[in-house]
């Protein structure tokens, strides 16, 4: 495929964070776009935070890695690679944090005709040398017309 295609999608995100204090579950729904060209897939969406403003998120899916880039009042570029530890700096209005990510599992499942899909990540995050927290991230997207 030589042309890239952009599809408006409905996005559902489920995140579970596990640490010594228990589990925290976060579920969000957003509208965004799914873009693919060859072996590169992207999901883009905007999140509105009451106390911060708009954060722009781009998820890039490639054969050997997945990356999440956030821009706006929150900024980071987090890279996921199976069995590898990656680092980035997480910029927040309250300060900047060193973030180390160890990916245990990642999976991208394309739906029929590239009109839907699912991204699954299971990873640990260490912020500024604190105790690691396990994250389970699942993003599902579906073409808006096909809801």
Largest sheet: 10 strands, antiparallel
**What's the CATH architecture name?**
Beta Barrel
> Spans of 5+ residues with little confidence (pLDDT < 50)?
none
Number of continuous helical runs: 0
Q: What's the level 1 CATH class?
A: Mainly Beta
Mean pLDDT across residues: 92
N- and C-termini, Cα separation:
26 Å
Domain count: 1
Helix content: under 10%
Strand count: 10
- Given helix and strand content, the structural type is mainly beta
> Beta-sheet strand percentage?
over 45%
Q: Quick one: CATH superfamily? A: Calycin beta-barrel core domain
Question: What is this entry, summarized?
Answer:
The protein has 147 residues and is mainly beta. The protein is 0% helix and 73% strand.
Q: How would you describe the overall organization of this protein?
A:
The protein is mainly beta. The chain has one domain: Calycin beta-barrel core domain (Lipocalin), CATH 2.40.128.20. It is built from no helices and 10 strands. Strands 6-5-4-3-2-1-10-9-8-7 form a 10-stranded antiparallel sheet, with no helix packed on it. The chain is globular.
Write the layout of secondary structure elements.
Layout: E1 5-19, E2 22-37, E3 40-49, E4 53-61, E5 66-71, E6 76-80, E7 85-92, E8 95-110, E9 116-127, E10 133-143
Antiparallel strand pairs: 1-2, 1-10, 2-3, 3-4, 4-5, 5-6, 7-8, 8-9, 9-10
